[in-house]
Design brief:
EC 1.6.5.9 (chains A, B); NDH-2 (chains A, B); FAD (chains A, B); five-stranded parallel sheet; alpha/beta; homodimer; 30% helix; four-stranded parallel sheet; flavoprotein (chains A, B); FAD/NAD(P)-binding domain; elongated
Chain lengths: 448, 448
């Protein structure tokens, strides 16, 4: 990785040569935290910006577990991309699937639409769950990356309870009331905690024939501790809080097999009505578009200006990029990294394309890492300072409401949270009519 | 229909014969407006009440069109049945599908669960859309009865706009931006009005390459006027308001054929990206469980005490029942009829089973019939008095917020409405990840 300015990148010819003068075309693939930050920073400039996403909405993934556990509605944490970017006259939005990049002719290839030419291309396609070579597990143990998956998990969870209520076989009943969460990262911990709270509430309030002692939530982590990215004191606290909620935390256990209704981990079989996957992510397959090796979990190596190594007009940001921090270690796959990289890149492109200025290298500023375990229990790691318990929980709630892009959503989520806080009720306990037919969306289509 | 009291119905034996004494079992099939009203009226009594529904939620259907047009989230207008009835210790809820009624052994037969015995059975299974012998149209022109269908319609509508934005073929573009609503009843009128408002808003605010003149909403009605149940002056007003919104109202036109992307009505072919069915309902197939003829649209004839004719322990209420008003005409298939019948029947059963008193015959009290066309435009028909315009619209909104069962939902819906009123934004413009694979749920399973 060289710190020398890469002058080949200045593809804008001197002013007198430009005829007819046309605006520089910036194409952004992916409208998550990273892609949207770039787009906003380029909004209402003379640049011709196109944002391409295969979904029409921007999803606030940190709260997706609340959709999966029936606390929020999908629309509470999702916003149409067109709406987010509607105020910028120079930004076009395309709902389309990228199939490749033609680096020779500088264009993005799309499924069922014409190629889109670019002068600068930003890849911000995020990450997906890594089943470590066992993609057949996906159907039985969905991850939590999309609204479809969140709904799927919600359906399965609620349906398992309904089936248990009807069952007269004590063994079956117990299995249906068992949830297994695989992976002790923040998503796994949040899911396990939320399921434990929801399940206990439903059993005591809504079901007549279910016994609290039949209800079981198991959190399986292969490593020696959960929440590996956090310091030990916070991890210990989270571990203890999960156990207070009734979650069985099993560390150091490897999952060997997953079927429709069971998990085998370190030789022990657990029958379960609901199995969830949160055991690690890999970058989106965008590296294939560039003909790169899938090393480092498919993340695309970038230089200090976030340019993809070996290219002059392509950048990668967020989970799909492999950038290095000041300590020389890879930056974590966190929303705040994506957002900061997006803001930086937007500024850098403006400076370079409009004013001909060279960018400073990107520097990540740690805003604090957080995870929530349950009511009144969360952890915050700000590097030097740490926070846990009721205050951390309150801060977590405030930060997340604040981060929700849109005012209406903020207000709606706040009200629902306050209501739930007071009543412990869950508002979005819906089972779809076609619950019997649900399959994970991801098994139905190709991997682009 | 005889007004003579039917003493055979008093199946409760004299007190001294009851040994061991067990509570009378009331089974309610269907948890819509009717079924829930009965259940609530029987709540916290000594009766043993079971509510069976194939869905886990109670749906506020009058606002379902707002889910289909991206104004509300499904969970805003749906509540888990267990939650609604959770406070009554004597009511059990079962998520199950009824397959038949064994009148000899007095039990309800279920799919994948044991039969449920009853002393009194209430059928409150509602209605479904009637495709008048063309059930193959259902896949192309979904009706609006379930959350799944509302989501399906929302997906198709939003996806058609996205495809139109990408299209370079002017003909295709125009077709994709055309919506055809079949049926000029309240649902059809509400859908046409809401689509017109949503489409115009999206084109002016969010899309760059769509022209307002390519956007078209066609409302097709076979009869001579829309909203046939309303007096002429209100119908004329609604017709004019729809045209102000840009809806083409075509009355006296018969639909002859529907394909994936076109409707042929009275010889003319309309190509459309979005086709909707609201052209008449028929009762649920519950009449088959009783071995009745599907006369009168499958509605089950009931006496003045809502007992199914020819039975002593089975009742039918709501859309699935054919009851007669004081004028000797069949009662309309309206939520208020179902609700009043449910409340009446609950009281009647309490009186009879607990106190041995005979019920008075049921009398329907018209609370006013309403339909909403769009912003500031609605109609009310109270029989003698009529209301239209801005005041009717405000009253419509107040009544509907009031009727939403639950406090949280009321508040959430009110806030979203106020926000939308101020901004004209739509909050729930979500296209699912698996949008390409969506099919109507109703084509995927049997008709029970």
């Amino acid at each position: 990785m060289s710190m020398t300015p890469d002058t080949s990148a200045l593809s804008v010819p001197p002013l007198q040569e430009r005829k007819p003068q046309r605006p520089q075309r910036v194409v952004i693939v992916g409208a998550g935290f990273g892609g949207l930050s770039v787009a906003k920073a380029l909004g209402n400039s003379v640049l011709d910006v196109t944002v391409i996403d295969r979904r029409n909405h921007n999803l606030f993934q940190p709260l997706l577990y609340q959709v999966a556990t029936a606390a929020l509605s999908p629309a509470d944490i999702a916003e149409p991309i067109r709406r987010t970017l509607g105020r910028y006259h120079n930004i076009k939005v395309m709902l389309a699937e990228v199939t490749g990049i033609d680096r020779v002719n500088h264009q993005v290839l799309l499924n069922q639409a014409n190629p889109v030419p670019y002068d600068r291309l930003i890849i911000a396609t995020g990450s997906e769950y890594n089943y470590f070579g066992h993609d057949e597990w996906r159907a039985f143990a969905p991850g939590l990356k999309t609204i479809h998956e969140a709904r799927l998990i919600r359906q399965r969870l609620l349906l398992a309870f309904e089936k248990a209520e009807l069952s007269r076989d004590p063994k079956e009943k117990k299995a249906l009331l068992t949830s297994v969460v695989i992976g002790g990262g923040p998503t796994g911990v949040e899911m396990a905690g939320a399921i434990a709270e929801l399940g206990r509430f439903m059993i005591t309030r809504d079901f007549r024939k279910l016994a609290p002692e039949d209800f079981r939530v198991v959190l399986i982590e292969a490593g020696p501790k959960i929440l590996a990215a956090f310091p030990d004191d916070l991890t210990d606290y989270a571990h203890a809080e999960l156990e207070k909620l009734g979650v069985e935390v099993q560390t150091g256990r490897m999952v060997e097999s997953i079927t429709k209704d069971s998990v085998i981990a370190s030789g022990e079989t657990i029958f379960a009505g609901n199995i969830l996957w949160g055991a690690g992510v890999k970058a989106s397959p965008a590296f294939r578009w560039l003909g790169l090796d899938p090393k480092a979990g498919g993340r695309i190596p970038v230089g200090p200006d976030l340019r993809v190594e070996g290219t002059s007009d392509i950048y990668a940001i967020g989970d799909t990029a492999l950038g290095l921090g000041e300590d020389g270690k890879p930056l974590p796959a966190l929303a705040q990294v994506a957002k900061q990289q997006g803001e930086y890149l937007g500024r850098a492109l403006r400076n370079e394309l409009l004013e001909g200025r060279k960018p400073e290298p990107f520097r990540f500023r740690n805003r604090g890492n957080t995870a929530v375990i349950g009511r009144h229990a969360a952890i915050f790691d700000f590097g030097k300072r740490r926070l846990k318990g009721r205050v951390a929980w309150l801060l977590w709630a405030i930060v997340h409401v604040y981060l929700l892009v849109n005012f209406e959503k903020r207000l709606l989520v706040s009200i629902q949270w306050l209501w739930r806080y007071a009543t412990r009720q869950r508002g979005a306990r819906l089972i779809d009519e076609n619950a019997g037919n649900i399959v994970p969306a991801t098994t139905q289509r190709s991997e682009t």
